[in-house]
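Please fill in the sequence for the structure shown.

STRUCTURE ENCODING:
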C-alpha cells in the first residue's frame, strides 16, 4: 500500500516526467503543487507546508547551521546556471568589467538566495570583488523574504538597504538609482515584484558582453556547473519511512534520464537537418545534469565555502549534515 505525500516543485524539463506521471516513485503517491521557487521556499521555510519540495541550497545550509532540522536533503539538483553571467548593469554606469562593481549600488532580490551566493562567490574568487565592496539593495520585504524565515542579519562589513515597497529592482535600474543588479527575477508570484523587461531595454546591458563565453571559461577553469536548488523531505517522514529517501532519489534519476532522452531526440533532429555542426554532437550527448552527492561534491563544497566566506554560515556546511545518510555514496 502506497503512502501519500505532498510535494512542491517548479516546472522544468527535469521535473516534467515526475509531474506528468511518466515516472512514479515506488510506494509513493505524490500530490504535487507547482510553484515558482521564490514563493515555494518562503512557504516551506516559514510554514513547512509540504512533505517534499525543492529547496534553496543556500537556505538549507543556513537553517542547518542554526539547528533547524525539519528537513533532510535529497541530492536531486533541479536547476543549475552560471549565475554571475546574468549580472545586468546600466550602460551609463561606467561598469565595463567586474572590478568596476566596486563602490556601486547593486540590486538583489534576496541577499541569501543561492544564485546571489554564487554570483558574489565568483566575483570574489575570480575577480577580487568582495561583498563589502558593493552597496546592496534588497527587493523582498522582511515579511515575505526567505531571510525573515531563517533569521538572516547582514554579515559584518556588508551594507544592505531595503528597497521601499513602492519601488523594485526594475524601476530603480531604469531610474538610475541602481547601477547594477546581481540577479533579476520577473515572475508573478507572492514574493517578487519587478516587472520591467531589463534584458531587452536599451539602457541596460549584461556585465559580460558574451555571457555564454564567460560561462564556458568558468566551467573549463573550475569544472563547476553551479547548483541552485536541491530537494528536501520532511525529516519525520524520512525517519518513519526510511525507504522513501532512496525511492525518491531513484525516481528523480529516472526522470533525469527521460529528460536527457527527450533532449537528445531534439538534438538528433537538428544534427540530421544540418542545423548544428557535426563536431557539436559529442558535447551535446553529454548529460547536462547528474544527481547525487558523489558526482557533485566539488560544486556542493564550493557553495558551502562561499557561504562561509560571505558570513552566511559560521563554518562551511558538511554534506553529511545536509543530506540523508543513505544518499551520501550515490
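FILLED IN BY: designer on duty
SEQUENCE:
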Amino acid at each position: 500500500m502506497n503512502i501519500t505525500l505532498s510535494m512542491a516543485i517548479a516546472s522544468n524539463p527535469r521535473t516534467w516526467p515526475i509531474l506528468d506521471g511518466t515516472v512514479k516513485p515506488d510506494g509513493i503517491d505524490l500530490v504535487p503543487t507547482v510553484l515558482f521557487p521564490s514563493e515555494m521556499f518562503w512557504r516551506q521555510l516559514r510554514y513547512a507546508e509540504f512533505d517534499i519540495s525543492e529547496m534553496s541550497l543556500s537556505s538549507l545550509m543556513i537553517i542547518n547551521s542554526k539547528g533547524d532540522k525539519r528537513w533532510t536533503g535529497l541530492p536531486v539538483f533541479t536547476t543549475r546556471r552560471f549565475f554571475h553571467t546574468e549580472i545586468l548593469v546600466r550602460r551609463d554606469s561606467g561598469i565595463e568589467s567586474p572590478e568596476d562593481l566596486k563602490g556601486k549600488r547593486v540590486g538583489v532580490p534576496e541577499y541569501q538566495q543561492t544564485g546571489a551566493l554564487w554570483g558574489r562567490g565568483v566575483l570574489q574568487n575570480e575577480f577580487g570583488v568582495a561583498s563589502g565592496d558593493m552597496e546592496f539593495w534588497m527587493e523582498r520585504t522582511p515579511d515575505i523574504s526567505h531571510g525573515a524565515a531563517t533569521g538572516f542579519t547582514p554579515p559584518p562589513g556588508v551594507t544592505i538597504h531595503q528597497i521601499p515597497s513602492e519601488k523594485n529592482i526594475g524601476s530603480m535600474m531604469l531610474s538610475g538609482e541602481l547601477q547594477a543588479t546581481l540577479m533579476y527575477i520577473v515572475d508573478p508570484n507572492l514574493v517578487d515584484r519587478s516587472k520591467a523587461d531589463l534584458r531587452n531595454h536599451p539602457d541596460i546591458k549584461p556585465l559580460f558582453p558574451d555571457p555564454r563565453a564567460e560561462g564556458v571559461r568558468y566551467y573549463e577553469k573550475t569544472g563547476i556547473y553551479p547548483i541552485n536548488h536541491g530537494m528536501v523531505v520532511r525529516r519525520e517522514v524520512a525517519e518513519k519511512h526510511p525507504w522513501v529517501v532512496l525511492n525518491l532519489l531513484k525516481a528523480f534519476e529516472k526522470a533525469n534520464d527521460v529528460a536527457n532522452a527527450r533532449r537528445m531526440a531534439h538534438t538528433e533532429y537538428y544534427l540530421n537537418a544540418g542545423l548544428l555542426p557535426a563536431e557539436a554532437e559529442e558535447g551535446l550527448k553529454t548529460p547536462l545534469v547528474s544527481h547525487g552527492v558523489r558526482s557533485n561534491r566539488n560544486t556542493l563544497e564550493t557553495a558551502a565555502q562561499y557561504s562561509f566566506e560571505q558570513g552566511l554560515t559560521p563554518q562551511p556546511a558538511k554534506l553529511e549534515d545536509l543530506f540523508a545518510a543513505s544518499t551520501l555514496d550515490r
